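Hi Y.,

Following your request, here is the sequence exactly as I used it, all 324 residues.
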Amino acid sequence: MEVFIKDAKTFATKSHHTVLDYDITPSIYDTVSTITIPQTEEPAERDFVYLDGAKWLGIIGNVSTDDGRTTLECSQISTLFNRDLFYTAGTYTYLEDYLKTLIDDNYTNCVDTFYSLPFLDVEALTSTTGSLKPDLDDNIYNISSFMAKLRRIKGIYTNYTISRTKLYITIVTRANPVKNVDFSNPSFVITEQNFSAKTISKITTYCEENAQTRNWVLLDDGSIVNSTPTAGRVSGEWVALVVSNADDVAPKVQEEFARNFYSHNITFMCPLNYQFDLYDNLRIKIGNKIFTSYVAQKHLWANSKVQEIQCGELQMQYPYLTTI
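Below is the corresponding structure, written out as tokens. Let me know if you'd prefer a different format.
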């Protein structure tokens, strides 16, 4: 496997080297990855790196040399857009075009040519209407955080590809595939599982239309009953719910139980031949429970036949009501 070092100002390839070792973490978080190559003076802070075998693109944050080896500590490519900017309201029709304009104005064609990055080639491939502005702190924001907000709320993703002297950025709305993870399959091994749950176990409803009060209890198998069994119940809170119309009571109860949301950390190992990409949607089976989540982070090592996947937000699925 080889790594290509590309100049921070021109994106031209400065050198390429055989990779001696790597530990990379494609992630939605600000992680640091390391790549080790034979000793060289070519790489510099802020240069780009492209690990061809893993198709991973990053930015060098630190270069250290020891015992004939050079180690590159690299951040995610999205950190390219971490510079603080003052917010100015703009007019736009499509959110993808708005993001393209922000990148072009502040980076590609920056008025201070010392900071301009003319090698960027940005294209909006889809057109999503709506209004969304960056999160502001004293009227300051950065484009990287706005990208994350667009992804989270609107499903608008930013993709990166390279050529010899160009960094191509495409902005596109997409529906990510759903991939199944069943931990009864020995290929999937949980390495970490921490839950901190605020779970609803019982709901008492009051219907304004008919003044009827009813109790609803969630069971371990995901079913919902109007009785209060002593066994098989999910542990959690007892809440009250007021519903206007009688026809809406059962759907509202199901919806409320489906909001049981877990602050969690689930990490698992699996072979490399299982293809997982950042933001892939996951349908996870643990015991007799079904959860939905997405890929928040991958961990890849040199000479390893396995990968480590960390899930993002996890939500339990309650597919039906047994009693109406």
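The longest helix spans residues 95-108.

Thanks again,
Q.
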